[in-house]
Specification:
single chain; mainly beta; 24 strands; 9% helix; disordered C terminus
Length: 411
Protein backbone atom coordinates (compact mmCIF):
# COMPACT_ATOMS: atom_id res chain seq x y z
CA UNK A 1 0.00 0.00 0.00
CA UNK A 2 1.28 3.44 -0.87
CA UNK A 3 1.77 5.68 2.13
CA UNK A 4 -0.41 8.80 2.24
CA UNK A 5 1.05 12.04 1.00
CA UNK A 6 2.40 14.06 3.91
CA UNK A 7 3.32 17.71 3.85
CA UNK A 8 7.05 18.22 4.33
CA UNK A 9 8.26 19.62 7.62
CA UNK A 10 11.10 22.07 8.06
CA UNK A 11 12.23 20.22 11.19
CA UNK A 12 14.99 17.72 10.42
CA UNK A 13 14.22 14.06 10.95
CA UNK A 14 16.30 12.36 13.66
CA UNK A 15 17.35 9.99 10.90
CA UNK A 16 17.95 12.64 8.29
CA UNK A 17 18.29 10.27 5.37
CA UNK A 18 14.77 8.83 5.80
CA UNK A 19 12.10 10.56 3.74
CA UNK A 20 8.65 11.40 5.11
CA UNK A 21 7.07 8.77 2.86
CA UNK A 22 9.31 6.05 4.28
CA UNK A 23 8.60 7.18 7.84
CA UNK A 24 4.86 7.08 7.11
CA UNK A 25 5.15 3.58 5.66
CA UNK A 26 6.98 2.41 8.79
CA UNK A 27 4.45 4.01 11.13
CA UNK A 28 1.56 2.39 9.27
CA UNK A 29 2.90 -0.99 10.39
CA UNK A 30 3.14 -0.17 14.10
CA UNK A 31 0.57 -0.79 16.85
CA UNK A 32 -1.46 2.33 17.72
CA UNK A 33 0.25 2.94 21.07
CA UNK A 34 3.63 3.22 19.35
CA UNK A 35 2.27 5.56 16.69
CA UNK A 36 0.90 7.88 19.37
CA UNK A 37 4.28 7.96 21.12
CA UNK A 38 6.27 8.67 17.99
CA UNK A 39 5.03 12.26 17.96
CA UNK A 40 7.40 12.96 20.83
CA UNK A 41 10.42 12.15 18.65
CA UNK A 42 10.26 15.32 16.56
CA UNK A 43 7.85 17.75 14.94
CA UNK A 44 8.24 16.08 11.55
CA UNK A 45 7.10 12.72 12.86
CA UNK A 46 4.25 14.33 14.78
CA UNK A 47 3.09 16.06 11.60
CA UNK A 48 3.05 12.72 9.80
CA UNK A 49 1.27 10.74 12.52
CA UNK A 50 -1.43 13.38 13.12
CA UNK A 51 -2.31 14.15 9.50
CA UNK A 52 -5.84 13.17 8.34
CA UNK A 53 -4.42 11.24 5.39
CA UNK A 54 -2.26 9.11 7.65
CA UNK A 55 -5.14 8.44 10.07
CA UNK A 56 -7.37 7.25 7.20
CA UNK A 57 -4.65 5.01 5.76
CA UNK A 58 -3.88 3.59 9.20
CA UNK A 59 -7.54 2.68 9.81
CA UNK A 60 -7.69 0.88 6.45
CA UNK A 61 -4.66 -1.21 7.39
CA UNK A 62 -5.88 -2.29 10.79
CA UNK A 63 -7.66 -5.66 10.95
CA UNK A 64 -11.31 -5.92 11.88
CA UNK A 65 -11.60 -7.35 15.38
CA UNK A 66 -14.31 -8.70 17.62
CA UNK A 67 -14.34 -6.64 20.81
CA UNK A 68 -15.87 -7.63 24.15
CA UNK A 69 -15.99 -6.12 27.62
CA UNK A 70 -14.35 -8.73 29.79
CA UNK A 71 -16.30 -9.88 32.86
CA UNK A 72 -19.04 -7.31 32.70
CA UNK A 73 -19.42 -3.60 33.38
CA UNK A 74 -16.30 -1.42 33.63
CA UNK A 75 -14.18 -4.33 32.47
CA UNK A 76 -11.10 -4.28 30.28
CA UNK A 77 -11.66 -4.66 26.55
CA UNK A 78 -10.55 -7.83 24.80
CA UNK A 79 -10.09 -8.01 21.02
CA UNK A 80 -9.28 -10.78 18.57
CA UNK A 81 -8.98 -10.65 14.75
CA UNK A 82 -12.33 -11.47 13.20
CA UNK A 83 -11.16 -13.42 10.17
CA UNK A 84 -8.52 -15.63 11.80
CA UNK A 85 -9.19 -15.84 15.56
CA UNK A 86 -5.41 -15.63 15.90
CA UNK A 87 -4.79 -15.89 19.64
CA UNK A 88 -1.30 -14.51 19.18
CA UNK A 89 -2.86 -11.24 17.99
CA UNK A 90 -5.29 -10.89 20.89
CA UNK A 91 -5.14 -7.58 22.71
CA UNK A 92 -6.26 -6.35 26.09
CA UNK A 93 -7.20 -2.66 26.15
CA UNK A 94 -7.20 -1.30 29.69
CA UNK A 95 -9.67 1.50 29.13
CA UNK A 96 -9.57 4.50 31.47
CA UNK A 97 -13.25 4.91 32.34
CA UNK A 98 -14.37 8.37 33.49
CA UNK A 99 -13.51 8.85 37.15
CA UNK A 100 -16.02 9.26 39.93
CA UNK A 101 -17.32 12.75 40.41
CA UNK A 102 -19.73 14.74 38.26
CA UNK A 103 -19.99 14.60 34.50
CA UNK A 104 -19.44 18.09 33.10
CA UNK A 105 -22.03 17.54 30.36
CA UNK A 106 -24.96 16.12 32.32
CA UNK A 107 -23.98 17.40 35.78
CA UNK A 108 -24.91 14.02 37.25
CA UNK A 109 -22.70 12.06 39.63
CA UNK A 110 -20.74 9.30 37.88
CA UNK A 111 -22.20 6.40 39.83
CA UNK A 112 -23.29 3.72 37.41
CA UNK A 113 -21.38 1.00 35.62
CA UNK A 114 -20.31 1.44 32.00
CA UNK A 115 -21.77 -1.14 29.63
CA UNK A 116 -20.39 -1.61 26.10
CA UNK A 117 -23.29 -1.08 23.68
CA UNK A 118 -21.81 -0.70 20.21
CA UNK A 119 -18.93 0.09 17.89
CA UNK A 120 -18.67 2.27 14.80
CA UNK A 121 -15.77 3.77 12.83
CA UNK A 122 -13.19 3.19 15.57
CA UNK A 123 -15.50 4.55 18.29
CA UNK A 124 -17.20 2.69 21.12
CA UNK A 125 -20.62 3.41 22.60
CA UNK A 126 -21.20 2.90 26.32
CA UNK A 127 -24.29 3.17 28.50
CA UNK A 128 -24.08 4.28 32.13
CA UNK A 129 -26.99 3.59 34.49
CA UNK A 130 -27.36 5.29 37.84
CA UNK A 131 -30.00 6.42 40.29
CA UNK A 132 -30.26 9.66 38.33
CA UNK A 133 -30.99 8.03 34.98
CA UNK A 134 -29.18 6.68 31.94
CA UNK A 135 -26.40 8.48 30.09
CA UNK A 136 -24.49 7.51 26.98
CA UNK A 137 -20.83 7.95 26.25
CA UNK A 138 -18.72 7.73 23.10
CA UNK A 139 -15.05 6.83 23.42
CA UNK A 140 -12.03 6.36 21.20
CA UNK A 141 -10.11 3.64 23.08
CA UNK A 142 -6.92 4.35 21.13
CA UNK A 143 -6.69 8.04 22.05
CA UNK A 144 -8.57 7.52 25.36
CA UNK A 145 -10.95 10.40 24.57
CA UNK A 146 -14.50 10.47 25.94
CA UNK A 147 -17.61 12.55 25.43
CA UNK A 148 -20.99 12.22 27.14
CA UNK A 149 -24.25 12.62 25.24
CA UNK A 150 -27.13 14.24 27.07
CA UNK A 151 -30.41 12.26 26.89
CA UNK A 152 -33.10 13.45 24.45
CA UNK A 153 -35.59 13.80 27.33
CA UNK A 154 -33.86 13.85 30.68
CA UNK A 155 -36.64 12.32 32.79
CA UNK A 156 -38.13 9.89 30.25
CA UNK A 157 -37.47 6.21 29.63
CA UNK A 158 -34.98 5.89 26.77
CA UNK A 159 -33.34 3.14 24.76
CA UNK A 160 -30.24 3.81 22.68
CA UNK A 161 -30.73 2.21 19.25
CA UNK A 162 -27.23 2.65 17.91
CA UNK A 163 -24.23 4.73 16.89
CA UNK A 164 -23.74 5.16 13.15
CA UNK A 165 -21.85 7.15 10.53
CA UNK A 166 -24.07 9.37 8.38
CA UNK A 167 -22.66 8.99 4.87
CA UNK A 168 -23.64 12.30 3.21
CA UNK A 169 -22.39 14.52 6.06
CA UNK A 170 -19.71 12.31 7.61
CA UNK A 171 -21.28 12.96 11.02
CA UNK A 172 -21.35 10.40 13.80
CA UNK A 173 -24.90 10.14 15.08
CA UNK A 174 -26.84 8.48 17.87
CA UNK A 175 -30.38 7.16 17.43
CA UNK A 176 -32.68 7.04 20.47
CA UNK A 177 -36.18 5.76 21.22
CA UNK A 178 -37.63 7.91 24.02
CA UNK A 179 -41.05 8.06 25.63
CA UNK A 180 -43.09 11.24 25.23
CA UNK A 181 -44.44 13.39 28.05
CA UNK A 182 -47.96 11.94 28.31
CA UNK A 183 -48.64 9.97 31.52
CA UNK A 184 -45.33 11.10 32.91
CA UNK A 185 -43.38 9.43 30.15
CA UNK A 186 -44.37 5.97 31.29
CA UNK A 187 -45.08 4.43 27.93
CA UNK A 188 -48.23 5.50 26.05
CA UNK A 189 -46.34 7.16 23.18
CA UNK A 190 -42.72 7.57 22.10
CA UNK A 191 -40.52 9.26 19.50
CA UNK A 192 -37.22 8.63 17.77
CA UNK A 193 -34.46 11.21 18.13
CA UNK A 194 -31.21 11.67 16.24
CA UNK A 195 -28.23 13.35 17.85
CA UNK A 196 -25.23 14.58 15.86
CA UNK A 197 -22.02 14.46 17.88
CA UNK A 198 -20.30 16.92 15.55
CA UNK A 199 -23.14 19.48 15.73
CA UNK A 200 -23.98 18.78 19.39
CA UNK A 201 -27.68 18.95 18.54
CA UNK A 202 -30.67 16.61 18.87
CA UNK A 203 -33.63 16.40 16.48
CA UNK A 204 -36.96 14.64 16.90
CA UNK A 205 -37.73 12.45 13.89
CA UNK A 206 -41.36 11.78 14.70
CA UNK A 207 -43.63 9.38 16.56
CA UNK A 208 -42.61 5.76 16.99
CA UNK A 209 -44.89 2.74 16.80
CA UNK A 210 -43.59 1.24 20.06
CA UNK A 211 -42.80 2.65 23.48
CA UNK A 212 -40.17 1.99 26.14
CA UNK A 213 -41.14 0.17 29.32
CA UNK A 214 -39.17 -0.40 32.48
CA UNK A 215 -38.27 -3.92 31.40
CA UNK A 216 -37.88 -3.30 27.68
CA UNK A 217 -34.98 -5.28 26.28
CA UNK A 218 -31.67 -3.45 25.97
CA UNK A 219 -30.86 -2.93 22.28
CA UNK A 220 -27.33 -4.26 21.98
CA UNK A 221 -26.87 -5.16 18.31
CA UNK A 222 -27.89 -4.08 14.84
CA UNK A 223 -26.86 -4.88 11.29
CA UNK A 224 -25.64 -1.98 9.16
CA UNK A 225 -26.29 -2.65 5.47
CA UNK A 226 -25.89 -0.06 2.70
CA UNK A 227 -26.58 2.88 5.01
CA UNK A 228 -29.51 1.20 6.75
CA UNK A 229 -29.70 -0.11 10.31
CA UNK A 230 -31.62 -3.32 11.02
CA UNK A 231 -32.82 -4.62 14.41
CA UNK A 232 -34.43 -7.71 15.82
CA UNK A 233 -34.52 -6.47 19.43
CA UNK A 234 -35.91 -2.95 18.92
CA UNK A 235 -39.23 -2.70 20.84
CA UNK A 236 -41.14 -2.29 17.57
CA UNK A 237 -39.46 -5.38 16.10
CA UNK A 238 -40.19 -7.35 19.27
CA UNK A 239 -43.87 -6.36 19.31
CA UNK A 240 -44.51 -7.03 15.62
CA UNK A 241 -42.27 -10.04 15.04
CA UNK A 242 -40.65 -8.16 12.15
CA UNK A 243 -37.23 -6.75 11.32
CA UNK A 244 -37.14 -2.98 11.80
CA UNK A 245 -34.98 -1.08 9.30
CA UNK A 246 -33.92 2.58 9.47
CA UNK A 247 -32.60 4.44 6.42
CA UNK A 248 -29.94 6.78 7.83
CA UNK A 249 -30.14 9.09 4.79
CA UNK A 250 -33.91 9.52 4.33
CA UNK A 251 -34.44 8.94 8.11
CA UNK A 252 -37.44 6.71 7.50
CA UNK A 253 -38.37 3.37 9.06
CA UNK A 254 -39.55 0.17 7.41
CA UNK A 255 -40.83 -3.14 8.75
CA UNK A 256 -39.54 -6.25 7.00
CA UNK A 257 -40.83 -9.81 7.26
CA UNK A 258 -38.62 -12.46 8.78
CA UNK A 259 -38.03 -15.86 7.19
CA UNK A 260 -40.93 -18.32 7.54
CA UNK A 261 -41.29 -20.65 10.54
CA UNK A 262 -39.17 -18.45 12.82
CA UNK A 263 -41.39 -19.36 15.78
CA UNK A 264 -39.70 -22.79 15.90
CA UNK A 265 -36.27 -21.30 16.37
CA UNK A 266 -34.40 -19.72 19.22
CA UNK A 267 -33.20 -16.11 19.24
CA UNK A 268 -32.08 -15.28 15.67
CA UNK A 269 -29.32 -12.90 14.60
CA UNK A 270 -28.73 -10.77 11.52
CA UNK A 271 -25.61 -10.87 9.38
CA UNK A 272 -24.47 -10.07 5.85
CA UNK A 273 -23.60 -12.90 3.47
CA UNK A 274 -22.67 -12.65 -0.20
CA UNK A 275 -23.57 -8.96 -0.06
CA UNK A 276 -27.12 -9.64 1.14
CA UNK A 277 -29.07 -9.32 4.39
CA UNK A 278 -29.15 -12.73 6.06
CA UNK A 279 -30.43 -14.33 9.24
CA UNK A 280 -29.09 -17.15 11.40
CA UNK A 281 -31.44 -19.02 13.71
CA UNK A 282 -30.71 -21.94 16.05
CA UNK A 283 -33.21 -24.80 16.16
CA UNK A 284 -33.35 -26.64 19.51
CA UNK A 285 -29.60 -26.34 20.00
CA UNK A 286 -28.98 -28.93 17.29
CA UNK A 287 -29.05 -27.02 14.02
CA UNK A 288 -28.56 -23.52 12.71
CA UNK A 289 -30.46 -22.35 9.64
CA UNK A 290 -28.93 -19.63 7.47
CA UNK A 291 -31.43 -17.61 5.43
CA UNK A 292 -30.63 -15.03 2.75
CA UNK A 293 -32.91 -12.22 1.55
CA UNK A 294 -32.42 -12.62 -2.20
CA UNK A 295 -34.08 -9.31 -3.12
CA UNK A 296 -33.78 -6.52 -0.56
CA UNK A 297 -36.84 -4.77 -2.00
CA UNK A 298 -38.97 -7.90 -1.54
CA UNK A 299 -39.01 -9.11 2.05
CA UNK A 300 -40.85 -12.27 0.97
CA UNK A 301 -37.78 -13.44 -0.96
CA UNK A 302 -36.10 -15.30 1.90
CA UNK A 303 -34.33 -18.52 0.91
CA UNK A 304 -32.66 -21.02 3.22
CA UNK A 305 -29.08 -21.52 2.04
CA UNK A 306 -27.62 -23.76 4.74
CA UNK A 307 -28.56 -25.99 7.64
CA UNK A 308 -25.61 -26.42 10.00
CA UNK A 309 -25.32 -29.31 12.43
CA UNK A 310 -23.96 -27.56 15.48
CA UNK A 311 -21.17 -29.33 17.38
CA UNK A 312 -21.79 -29.74 21.14
CA UNK A 313 -19.43 -26.87 21.98
CA UNK A 314 -21.72 -24.48 20.08
CA UNK A 315 -25.14 -25.87 20.99
CA UNK A 316 -25.95 -22.55 22.67
CA UNK A 317 -24.69 -20.34 19.86
CA UNK A 318 -26.12 -16.87 20.31
CA UNK A 319 -25.15 -15.26 17.00
CA UNK A 320 -23.33 -15.71 13.72
CA UNK A 321 -21.53 -13.19 11.54
CA UNK A 322 -19.59 -13.18 8.31
CA UNK A 323 -15.92 -13.71 9.08
CA UNK A 324 -14.75 -11.97 5.90
CA UNK A 325 -14.24 -8.25 5.41
CA UNK A 326 -17.42 -6.18 5.12
CA UNK A 327 -19.71 -9.06 4.19
CA UNK A 328 -17.92 -10.11 1.00
CA UNK A 329 -18.52 -13.58 -0.37
CA UNK A 330 -17.15 -16.10 2.09
CA UNK A 331 -17.63 -19.73 3.01
CA UNK A 332 -16.67 -19.09 6.64
CA UNK A 333 -18.87 -17.66 9.38
CA UNK A 334 -18.03 -16.78 12.97
CA UNK A 335 -20.11 -18.39 15.73
CA UNK A 336 -20.38 -16.94 19.25
CA UNK A 337 -21.46 -19.11 22.19
CA UNK A 338 -22.16 -16.84 25.13
CA UNK A 339 -22.60 -19.62 27.68
CA UNK A 340 -19.14 -21.13 27.17
CA UNK A 341 -17.34 -17.95 26.08
CA UNK A 342 -16.23 -19.71 22.89
CA UNK A 343 -15.79 -18.45 19.34
CA UNK A 344 -15.59 -20.67 16.29
CA UNK A 345 -14.90 -20.30 12.58
CA UNK A 346 -17.28 -22.59 10.72
CA UNK A 347 -16.59 -23.59 7.11
CA UNK A 348 -19.88 -23.90 5.21
CA UNK A 349 -18.28 -26.04 2.49
CA UNK A 350 -16.47 -28.48 4.75
CA UNK A 351 -19.35 -28.40 7.28
CA UNK A 352 -17.10 -28.22 10.30
CA UNK A 353 -15.54 -25.87 12.83
CA UNK A 354 -12.06 -25.12 11.49
CA UNK A 355 -10.90 -22.93 14.41
CA UNK A 356 -12.14 -22.64 17.97
CA UNK A 357 -10.91 -20.40 20.78
CA UNK A 358 -11.98 -19.90 24.36
CA UNK A 359 -12.18 -16.12 24.50
CA UNK A 360 -13.14 -15.91 28.17
CA UNK A 361 -13.90 -18.19 31.10
CA UNK A 362 -17.27 -17.33 32.56
CA UNK A 363 -18.75 -18.48 35.87
CA UNK A 364 -17.55 -21.91 36.99
CA UNK A 365 -18.05 -24.10 40.04
CA UNK A 366 -14.86 -22.62 41.49
CA UNK A 367 -15.95 -19.04 40.67
CA UNK A 368 -19.77 -19.14 40.65
CA UNK A 369 -20.15 -15.38 40.99
CA UNK A 370 -17.52 -14.40 38.40
CA UNK A 371 -19.15 -11.66 36.27
CA UNK A 372 -20.20 -12.97 32.88
CA UNK A 373 -18.62 -11.66 29.68
CA UNK A 374 -21.26 -10.95 27.05
CA UNK A 375 -20.06 -12.08 23.63
CA UNK A 376 -21.98 -9.48 21.68
CA UNK A 377 -21.25 -9.14 17.97
CA UNK A 378 -19.37 -5.82 18.08
CA UNK A 379 -16.77 -5.30 15.33
CA UNK A 380 -13.97 -2.79 15.94
CA UNK A 381 -10.88 -1.45 14.22
CA UNK A 382 -8.35 1.06 15.55
CA UNK A 383 -8.66 4.73 14.67
CA UNK A 384 -6.13 7.49 15.34
CA UNK A 385 -8.54 10.24 14.30
CA UNK A 386 -9.07 12.91 16.95
CA UNK A 387 -12.64 14.01 16.42
CA UNK A 388 -13.55 17.60 17.19
CA UNK A 389 -16.69 16.54 19.08
CA UNK A 390 -14.52 15.38 21.96
CA UNK A 391 -13.75 19.06 22.59
CA UNK A 392 -17.08 20.80 21.88
CA UNK A 393 -20.01 21.41 24.20
CA UNK A 394 -22.71 18.75 23.85
CA UNK A 395 -25.68 21.08 24.25
CA UNK A 396 -28.99 20.28 25.93
CA UNK A 397 -31.74 19.37 23.43
CA UNK A 398 -33.66 22.54 22.48
CA UNK A 399 -37.07 21.21 23.51
CA UNK A 400 -36.19 20.62 27.15
CA UNK A 401 -34.19 22.48 29.76
CA UNK A 402 -32.35 19.79 31.66
CA UNK A 403 -31.60 20.88 35.25
CA UNK A 404 -28.44 18.78 35.44
CA UNK A 405 -26.62 20.03 32.34
CA UNK A 406 -23.84 22.58 32.46
CA UNK A 407 -20.78 22.55 30.19
CA UNK A 408 -18.92 20.03 28.08
CA UNK A 409 -17.42 16.80 29.34
CA UNK A 410 -13.87 16.54 28.04
CA UNK A 411 -12.28 13.66 29.91
Amino acid sequence: MTAPAIQSSTAPSPLGLISDDVVAEILLRLPPAYVLRCGAVCRAWRAISTSPGFAAAYARRRPLELIVQRHGFNGVLDTIPLATLDEGSRRCIDLAYPERGKCKTTGRPLEGPFRLMGSCDGLLLFEEDSYYGTDHWVCNPVTQQWTASVPPRSARLTRICGLYLHGPSGEHRLLFLTNDDDCGGMGTSASHYVRSLEAGETRRLGPAAATVHMFSQIITEHLEYHGKLHWLDHPEAMETGKILAFDTVSETFRRMSRPPSMNRHGKPSLLEMDGKVSMAAVLKGLHMDLWVLEDYGDDESWARRHRIDLPPAFSRTRWAMNASVLGRSSNVILLGDNASGSLGLYDLVENRVVKQVQLVTNATREKPFWPCTQLNAHVFNDSLERHAFFDIIQNTPPDEECPWCSSSCNM
